[in-house]
Description:
Helix content is 26%, strand content 26%. The chain has nine helices and 13 strands. The protein has helices at 66-71, 107-115, 153-161, 176-187, 224-227, 232-256, 276-283, 308-313, 315-321, and strands at 31-37, 40-46, 58-65, 82-86, 93-98, 126-133, 145-152, 169-174, 193-199, 204-210, 213-220, 262-267, 288-290. Strands 3-2-1-4-8 form a five-stranded mixed sheet, sandwiched between helices. Strands 11-10-9-12-13 form a five-stranded mixed sheet, with helices on both faces. The longest helix has 25 residues, at 232-256. The termini are close together.
Amino acid sequence: MPHFQNSVFLKYWVITLRIPFTKRSTGKSGLLAVVPSGGNRLLVHVAHQRSDIGLPRITAAYKIPAAEFSSGDRLSRWKKTPVSTLLSAGEYQILQMEAPQVPRQEWKTALQWSLQDHLDFPVANASFDVFDIPTEEYMPGRQRMVYVVAAQNDVIQSVMKSFDSTGLDLAVIDTPGMALRNISALLEMPNQGQACLYFDNDKGLLVVTFRGELYDFRSINISLKQLSDNDKEQRNQLFERISLELQRTFDALDRQYGFIHIGRLSLAHRNELSGLPKYLKDNLYVPVDLLNLQGKVDIRDCPSLQQPVRQSRYLLAIGAALRGDSGQ
């Protein structure tokens, strides 16, 4: 099991410019992910200790209407459990930048001054965090790169405020890309890169991991709604766009990180994606399969998650709840 070393919020205490994305929590009760999804909230809980078969144990996975979430009446069982949530599309930016030529503990301070040229909002109103893209072991002497994840303080405050009436212990505010990274790391084959592709009602997300670390992240501006269109010609055009985006990403990754061989692309299964798996299999040199967490997490407490489509609906919430699982 890989160690999630480059998670934006691996530790429960991260100092940001203004507002912490996370706060201290013991994590003894595991982690509960609460993720917005349309007019609902998806809840997934991963236990602190692994199950008797040595896998991360999902003890609960269900949804509640947003109105009932606000009242907190259905949340009493989770009052002492640390909670993770995700920012929505458009609420954050993720940037790839050169690592400052200073000690790692000074990266955030050093990057603060160069961020303004890249953010869509004033850096004075930004909370951000930095994590490494590990290359030193494989390409010594190469310029180090980092990912920077930034959000406006007002957005962070709004997310925190949305939990005020629930009585829940909000411990982590994370991003969809990092949640999907946690899923990708679980699926990796030994010494091979893993790509994961996920679509929701906003867009597509692609991540590539290697030995548990995130090496590439892409947004694809195609939504499930577009892909569910019955017009065959339009669907084929969208399939072609997706395939080209994937191919360009994999080619660029090979040039940039030659030590990574992508062993597989796993596509999160949704009914709206009918025909896409076969199209990608026919047009990519990377093997393609449908994402399945069977054998990667213990879902005996949630038998409905045996269905790949249901897994996909809860995928980001599962990834968010896995944030604290380091493989120990």
